[in-house]
Design a protein that fits this description.
By secondary structure, this protein is mainly beta. The chain has 3 helices and 34 strands.
Length: 325
Amino acid sequence: MGVIAARLPRVRGLEVSHVNNAWLASLAAVALLWAAGAAARTLAVGPGQPFKAPSEAVAAARSGDTIRIEPGRYFDCAVVPQDHLTIEGAGPNVVLTDKTCDGKALLVIDGNNVTVRNITLQRARVPDQNGAGIRAEGGNLLVENSRFVNNENGILAAENPQATIRIVGSEFIGNGKCAEACAHGVYVSKIGLLRIERSRFFDTHQGHHIKSRALRTEIIGNEIMDGPEGTSSYLIDLPNGSTALVEGNKMQKGPRSENQATAVMIGEEGVDRETDQLLFRNNSFTNDESRSTVFVNNNTATPAKLVGNVFKGPVRPLSGDGSVQ
């Protein structure tokens, strides 16, 4: 190192030793990053594996690790404090069921930048009747190719205006409940962004398929359908307003819906956040009720733009400010 330092010139009066120290600090930072990546581990769960239950692997995990779960049914739950953790199924039919942690959820995620992939979370029940497959209480969360079946809430997220929750290629079937309060397919509090892509919502009970208090909500390329037996209220609810893009979805309100008047509701609890845009583009919506329903009920002063949508059954496209093309 001394030879390298001796060849370094002065930089506008900066001492050579200062340049050398900065260079060494940069080198140390790179080494630390490399070591962190090299230290990331894969923790295997299942019969014949080092960990018999997902919660055991979570307890042993460090930030940056991957927990890989073999197919099977696990009567288990876990609280996840680590950052940059991946929890994934190693094949089909990886099921966490029936057991909840902290009176909240099958997975209570307190860490940041966590990924949950290829897992079924089902039958979450808690005493306050607000149990979830996933309770998101940390930062960013990615859910991929997972199933949420017969929970009170599929996913329930706490307030964090910096957080992004992204849901891709997943299914929400038979979730929802209204008792002391209502539970939903997906319900997020005030987060930065909720983005749901290529996912399926079906047969939601009493609550809404999607309820978002996010600052921005993007719902793209999904199926959101009551089916013949679903009793959901709204297909999508943005109760406080929200900059929103709803595009390319296949949507249906069924004959047993508990709210026959509206499919998508915006701002009914009072608009308290910036709502720059409300764009509904290239969706198809079928009303299988016997009476007419409103597709978008806009209670904000931001004009809703409905472009290229296709309606079947008795439908009034828009109530409130906006335009229909």
